[in-house]
Amino acid sequence: MKQMELVIFVAYFSMCIGIALYFRKVAGKGESTYWGANRSIGFFVNGVALFSTLVSAASFMGFLGLAYRLGWSLTTMAFGVSSTLGFIFCMLLASGPLRRFSELRGKFTMTSFFAERYSSATALATTIFVLILFPAYIVPQLMGAGLAGAYMLGIEFKYAVLIVGTVYMAYVLLGGMLSVTWTDFIQGLLLFCLMVGLSLTAIVHFGGLGPLLSQAVAVNPHYLGIHPKTSIWTYFGISLGVFMFVLSSPHIIMRLFTTKNVNQGRASLSLTAGLSLVFHLLGYIGVAAAALVFEPKLAKIDNTFIVVMDRLFSPFMRGLALAAILAAIMSTTSGMLLAVAAEFSNNIYKKFFNQDASESQVIRVAKIVICSVGLLTMILALFQTKSIGVIVGLLVEGTGSSFVVPLLAGLWWKRANALGGFLSVMGGFITFIAIHFSGVVPMFAEILISLPASALFMVIGSLVSAPPSSKTLEFMQSLHQSRSLTDQKSTTGVAA
Amino acid sequence: LIIIIIERRPAMSKDYISGKNPGLILGIVIFSLWLLCWIGLMGRFSAIQFAGIPIITWAMMVVGVTAVIASVIAIPILSKWEDS
Fold it and tell me: What are the tens digits of pLDDT across the range B21-42?
């Protein structure tokens, strides 16, 4: 057991639990606080928290490993630029109307928007897919936690998984969105500084970026270029998948509902986009290149970050870097766990089992879901399966294939209706699964077929059935206008 | 863009789906730039490099940085449009 790393490891976990305990009483006050942090989060905190939600085990392990093996250009295009554009698109096209929807209706999930814009069936299909996809996404994150913990602390993989799983589950359970956002904020600062800091340290260590890159290219001639063994369609498929995932993932959309107002939400998305770009471009270029120089034949590419950190960081910094890896994992998993709980308690429990459920009952059910899914994912993570990057990549594409078309069409196409929405969600997901298992396209290129299929289902379904009601259209119009909120506030004021 | 064309909405319309909505227009421009980079520079042009880095990677980085700057500038413009 390494003492310095252990001290920082314990301090970091204590901080997470401390934040949750601090917000425990406030979080229990009602759904608005538990799911939406009482709409009290400013743009800077939300922006950094959103960034840490995006950066996961895959960012420190799988994707960085891809930069090591397949080159920095792949990760720049596929993760850096695409995630940045996903946040920008979310900011331009979705954040304003969805934030207004949440405030007008008092709802906190993307599925609630689908229920109102399309139908309960579309909302139910979305909820079911979230309940399948998100726990499956959490499993490789916990595997990453196990690998990092085992390597850095010298403890067994299973104990590292259980410790990390218990802590993140505890702070989601205790503090809801408030503790998730504030822990994510601190985790976001930590992981950004550590990745970019390690890259800059590597650049200085090798006497500048030029000398470092020339040594890296001597080991892997395709480090800066396009790897000849990777299909162009794979490059494009991953890029499109990440773009669409960031634009439409329910756990990212949920964060828009926590900000003080529409403009703060938009500013936070711009900040997140900028952070993501710098993290993937500047952070990856130095770290992956240094790993190539230090370990030209690294067998387990998920360890790229750890190899460089071991060589260049002091024990204290190594402890912080371990905390950063765990931060990346826990920030993503906590957001997803909260989204799963929100989906189940609001869209299944409240809709089908107890329509008159009070806010405290809904939160109680959510806490049961958090415990159940948390434990289930921990157990599944103990059985290590495929590479972290592969699992995460497929789940990212599955999410994008299912949700992006109904989201954008729901907000921007007046003719989109219940049948179109339902077929789009179902068609996108089923096509993605069918294409993946048939193997007709290279891995990660499935979305190039499933996304247009989802759009086609939307168009056909909407055109063959009746258009949405005038009430729905009026509501849609109001979501695009600032005065809808002003009107509601003045009405509430008059009533009071 | 496709929706505007299909529904033949006039550009001066104050409807949210119109050729004057700054969010929609900026979204279309950025997405078109991104897609054009892929279509125009991937295939056989992927071998062209500048300072050892493929030209498509440079182009993508330019699109990313431009999008971030444009999004910051767009926040007050979007707000003004929605207020009106």
Answer: 888 889 989 999 998 888 877 7
pLDDT reading at A325 higher than 90: no
Tell me if B16 and A96 make a contact (CB, 8 A cut-off): no
Find where tokens 């970026």 sit: A209
pTM: 0.88
| pLDDT tens, position by position, A66-90 | 889 888 988 888 889 999 999 999 9
Give the contacts of A420 (CB within 8 A, at least 6 positions apart). Answer: A118, A409, A457, A458, A459, A460, A461, A462, A463, A465
The C-alpha torsion from A103 through A106 and A108 to A110, rounded to 10°, is -80
Which structure tokens are listed for A274?
């900028």
Contacts of B80 in chain A (CB under 8 A): none
Number of C-alpha atoms within 13 angstroms, CB side, residue A328?
29
Q: What is the DSSP string of A39-106?
A: G-B-HHHHHHHHHHHH--HHHHTHHHHHHHHH-HHHHIIIIIIHHHHHHHHIIIIIHHHHHHHHHHHT
Asked if A237 and A401 count as a contact pair (C-beta separation under 8 A), the reply is no
Prediction ipTM score: 0.86
Give the type of residue at A479: L
Q: Which of A171, A238, A303 is nearest to A443 (CA)?
A: A238
Which stretches does DSSP call E strand in A66-225? none
Cβ–Cβ contact A448 with B under 8 A? no
Chain B contact set for A413 (CB, 8 A): 3, 17
Chain A CB within 8 Å of residue B43 CB: yes
Tell me the nearest-neighbour CA distance from A412 into chain B, angstroms. 7
Choosing among A43, A85, A463, which should be mutated to test the B contact, i.e. which has the most B CBs within 10 A? Answer: A85
- Min Cα–Cα distance to chain A from B20, Å: 14
pLDDT, tens only, A114-159: 999 999 899 999 999 888 888 888 888 888 888 777 777 778 888 8
DSSP structure class, residue A298? -
